[in-house]
Structure formats: C-alpha cells, structure tokens
Amino acid sequence: MNIKDTAREICALSAPAGFEQQAAERIAQLLKPLVDRVTIDNMGNVIGLRRGENKQVNAPKLLLDAHMDEIGFIVTEVKEGFLKFTAIGVVDPRTLPGREVSVMADKPLYGVVACLPPHIITAEDKEKVIEIKDLFIDLGLSDEEVKKLVKPGTPGVFMGDFTELLDGSFASKALDDRLSVAVLLQVMENIKDLKLDFDVYFMASVQEEVGIRGAGPGAFAIAPDYCIAVDVTFAKQPETTAAESFKAGSGAAIAVGPNANRAMTKVLMDTAKEHKIPYSIEVIPGNSGTNGWAVQVSRQGVATAMVSIPVKYMHSPVETVKLSDAEAVCSLITEYIKAGKLA
Fold it and tell me: Which segment of 47-56, 148-157, 253-262 scores lowest on mean pLDDT?
C-alpha cells in the first residue's frame, strides 16, 4: 500500500455525500487486514479498531478521522431528454459547463454538462456565471430512453481523472477528502505491528460536505478520549494570500484555535520538530469547518487536534496536491502514535 496508489483508486469511485456506499465498501476492504475489527455503522461510516497490546477494556481511545464523501449532484427532473440537477455540497458553477459527469443509475451513465458554443452567446451573457438551476446534463439519449434509465433523486459526480503533474504533484476529483483517507490507511499499516498502550480507531466518515453529519454520530458511538481529524486546507494558488493559504510542499498544516486541544497540538508540533517533519501553523479562530468541530463536543467532550494537507483548486474536479505534503501528514501521525504520548 502507498498513499498515491490508494488515493488514485479510491478517488476514482463515485461517492457523493449521502451516497458513499461504493467508497465505503472498498475502504472497508483495504482496512480489514490492518485492524482487529471493521464495521459500517447506520450512518455509513467505516470504523476500524486496532486494539492496544493488552486489549484492556478501559484502554484510552485515539480516533483518526477523515471524511470519504465528495461533492456531487442529484437529478431533479428529466426534461426533453436532458437532466436538470442541483448540487450536493458546495459546488462552484463556474467549473461545470462542458464538464463530464457520471450519473449513478443502476448502471453508471456518462454524460456532459451542456454548454452553448461561444459563437452564439450574447456579449452580456459572456460576463455572467451560469447558475446551476440553468444547466442541463446531456446523456446523448432521447427523452423516452432517459426517463427509463434515470429518475429524479439519482445522484452523480463530476468526473476528473487522476493526473500526475510535475515535481511530485497530482490532480484528481475527490482529494477532499479521500486523500486524507488514503493517508490514514497508510498510518494504520505503519502501526499494524506496534505494541501500543491504547486503542486506535480509524473512521472514514460520511456527509461532511453537507453539514458535518457523519463524524458526530460515529464519535458518539466510539466515545474516544482523543481524536485527530485530517482534512485538506487551502494551498497557495493565484488570488490567494499568504494569510489564508499554504505553499504546496510546506508539509502538514497543524491547526491552532478553540477547536484544537492545546496539549495535543503541542505534542504534534514537538513530534514534527523532533523528526524534522515539515509543518505550518494554521490559525483557526472559530469553526474549523472540519469533522473536528463535531467530534470535539461529542458526549462529554473529546480532546481533538486537526492536521490538514494543502490542496489547490478545492471543490473542483482538478484538486491538486503535492505528494510530499500528504507524506508529511502520514509521518507526523505515525510518529505521534509511536511515541505514545497522546497529550
């Protein structure tokens, strides 16, 4: 197992928020040889347990979480052979005209988001962003054929091939946040044979993109003492500022703020320094917008830290990352677990 190949495989799967079964089943398969137990809960979260050496009933619990859902769309109407749709999650309509899509019918159907040729667009309309409500999906079929195959409520995803770029970078759909899932699978493989005094839980959670809905119930059932929530953050790209983004290749982004336990955060930073793992500090003064926000207040409260991977072009089909940043996050969490000091 390695991070890039795992990410390549699981990012190719179609799993928008609320419809994660395809990803859940494959992630559970990949996780099974690395843990003592794998379950998929009522929400659809994939949860793995790697017990500590003494298999104590009341051993401390560390939860490693990343969400596996992606943004997508859901069909609202079939109209004259075309599909009307609305977004699942936060979708930028600027990225959609001309985009290839996969419609998750009984068998996958491939289509494109229709777009007018520039020759016939008025000067006024050229200055506007087309709203999603005004877009259509073309499957290349007649109205009768489409109605047989696709019903309102059918979900889908915007396609984006896994593309290797220069200098260790690659682009794909769904790196937010399946890249983090791939990182945590690698962590679980790294610690598979370690003797630990605590239990480690892995959770690939659902429905983060529609309101952080899966991680809270998952954490409530696990009742962890500690959690590291792994997600993506903004990498520097044109029109971003240094204050709101991190240079690709700068390593792990460790969160500081009310949503981050200070003791855990300090241990993570000390671990990074000791092992010369590159990292940056991400200041988050309020809601982190990650699963850490929900997990922290589960049950009586969970000591929570957040570590993120800088990604360019977030919520597009060409999310772009530098592999070394994902590897830095993997090394940081692995060394943190090896040291055994959780806070």
Answer: 47-56
Instruction: Say whether pLDDT at 71 is over 80.
Output: yes
Average pLDDT score over residue span 283-290: 94
Largest CA distance in the chain: 71
* 124 part of the active site: no
CATH match for 3-70+173-339 among 3.40.50.300, 3.40.630.10, 3.20.20.10, 1.10.3720.10: 3.40.630.10
Cα 343 from chain centroid (whole Å): 26
Strand partners, 112: 100, 138
On the question of pLDDT at 259 being above 80, the answer is yes
Q: Which member of 70, 208, 209, 319 is catalytic?
A: 208
For 83-156, which CATH class?
A: mainly beta
Q: What is the pLDDT of residue 120?
A: 67
- Whether 20 contacts 68, CB under 8 Å: yes
DSSP helix/strand/coil, 300 = coil
Give the whole-angstrom CA distance, residue 103 versus residue 110.
6
- Looking up tokens 């060409």 gives 318
For 259, the token pair is 């949503």
pLDDT exceeds cutoff 70 at 243: no
Q: pTM for the complete prediction?
A: 0.94
- Residue 268, phi then psi, degrees to nearest 5: -65, -45
